[in-house]
Amino acid sequence: MLLLAKLSTAIWMLGRTTRVILALQNVTIDDRFGDELTHIVPTFTPVDGWWLGGAGGTGGFAKPSASLAYNKTWLDSTHEVGEVERMINFGFTGVSLYVYFIIANSQDFSAFTDYKFLMDGELVGTYTHYVEKPSGYLYNTPVYVNRTLKNEFHNFSIVVDSTEQPVLLLFDYAIYTVTATNDLVNQPSSRFPTPIPPSDVGADVGRTLGAFTLGLFLGMLLLVVYRRQKTQGIAGGALLMYVKRRGDG
Ligand SMILES: *[C@@H]1O[C@H](CO)[C@@H](O)[C@H](O)[C@H]1NC(C)=O
Ligand SMILES: *[C@@H]1O[C@H](CO)[C@@H](O)[C@H](O)[C@H]1NC(C)=O
Ligand SMILES: *[C@@H]1O[C@H](CO)[C@@H](O)[C@H](O)[C@H]1NC(C)=O
Ligand SMILES: *[C@@H]1O[C@H](CO)[C@@H](O)[C@H](O)[C@H]1NC(C)=O
Q1: CB-based burial label for 161 (10 Å; 0-12, 13-18, 19+)
Q2: I need a labelling partner for 76 at 20 to 30 A (CA). Which of 49, 95, 103, 189 fits?
Q3: Residue 242: its pLDDT value, please?
């Protein structure tokens, strides 16, 4: 029984370690097609302040190449000083967030950028870009990255309220990272498991581990009984005879 106690402790410690090993998966939110898991599309306000670029949209003055934009689309807006603020808003549950814009370097239209980032109502960052030479477009530009988020729902906003010069927004997509348990990842059918709150993740791992431990425990118990029978031949023999007699009777 001492062996079994040691074994249980070892398994318990293994379980504690397994709990921390969580697989990470990225989920993309496109400007037009939205979140690939929930299909919720970000909110762009004011509603009459945005132009769809690519996918049949005319866009604004900026003409980036649709083939280089994620899902061949982007949303275009220019905020003029004094106008109502521009806002892009979306929610997600994850531990990291990456926000990608197309940046324009052009002398032909206002291409200056000055963005504010709000996470759950709190200002967490800014991004500024002054037009550079040569002119052209910079695709997949990460304007905001946060890799230290709590694994819970976050309400994220990009806000532009310029006071000095017009600001251009060419929003392309965002990526957030969800955590998934190992057994979910191993199933090829669930490429994009729904995000699981940490408590449930623990419970899930716990359940799997519980079944595993029970199986192992029973196996060890059988082995110990068998060994005992071999070493303590007399007692073992008596037990066998008892079982046999009961079977006969
Ligand atoms: C998610 O995407 C970011 C940005 O492309 C990348 O750095 C990170 O490694 C990706 N994470 C996973 C789990 O694929
Ligand atoms: C968006 O792009 C991704 C990655 O290329 C692709 O898997 C997905 O089908 C595209 N969605 C649409 C609606 O085009
Ligand atoms: C990430 O978001 C948290 C709030 O959830 C904030 O405290 C932290 O400063 C942010 N980090 C970055 C790099 O923006
Ligand atoms: C997220 O924040 C925006 C802007 O502050 C607000 O309008 C919206 O109601 C919030 N959404 C949620 C789900 O909390």
Answers
A1: middle
A2: 95
A3: 45
Here the tokens at position 241 are 């005879």
Residue 61 Cβ < 6 Å to ligand 2 = no
Residues 175 and 188 sit within 8 Å (Cβ to Cβ): no
What integer pLDDT is reported at residue 213 of this predicted model? 54
DSSP label at 151? Answer: S
Q: Residue 70 corresponds to which tokens in the numbers above?
A: 């994620």
Dist CA 37 CA 39 (whole Å):
6
- For the entire predicted model, the pTM comes to 0.72
Mean pLDDT by 10 residues, the chain (249 residues): 55 51 91 97 97 83 95 97 97 98 95 98 98 96 98 98 95 96 46 47 47 53 52 45 47
Name the residue of 22, 36, 96 whose CB sits within 8 Å of the most ligand 1 atoms, as the mutation to test its pocket.
Answer: 96
For the beta carbon of residue 81, count every other beta carbon within 10 angstroms: 11
Ligand 3 center–CA 96 separation, angstroms: 10
How much is the pLDDT for 117?
98
CA of 131 to the centre of ligand 4 (A): 32
CB 77 within 8 A of CB 49: yes
Count of residues for the chain? 249
Beta-carbon contacts of 197 under 8 Å, excluding residues fewer than 6 positions away, are 93, 151, 152
Secondary structure of residue 110 in the 3-state scheme? coil
pLDDT on residue 23 = 93
